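Attaching the record inline, Q. Sequence:
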Amino acid sequence: MYGNHGAKAAIEIALHDLTGRAEGKPVHALLGDKRRSRMALLAVIGGGDFDGDLRDAEKKKAAGFTAYKIKVGVDTPENDAARTRAICKILNGLLISADANQGFSTAQALDYLRAVEGSA
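Structure, as predicted:
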């Protein structure tokens, strides 16, 4: 399982749940104090299709989502930045992050960041 952090995280979560069930406690009680009773559900936007992603952003905003992850690294940094800026206009004021998922080199990631600076 070298490098497979997602699978390791799933196992860790399952073990915490199992321990909590065995002790009759919620997992937050095992890890510390409860910090919140609600959290935003994250919506993912990012098929790489400019117009489709804008429609998806509008649809998910209308459905009440308040946190978003935009998939980038699927096109050039310039094209992904243009798509990101347009999505940010729709989702203005909401929580937005970008995830290149190793789709950019370091230089491309910096180009993308410079191109979207100040968009949100």
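The longest helix spans residues 5-23. The first strand starts at residue 42 and ends at 45.

More tomorrow.
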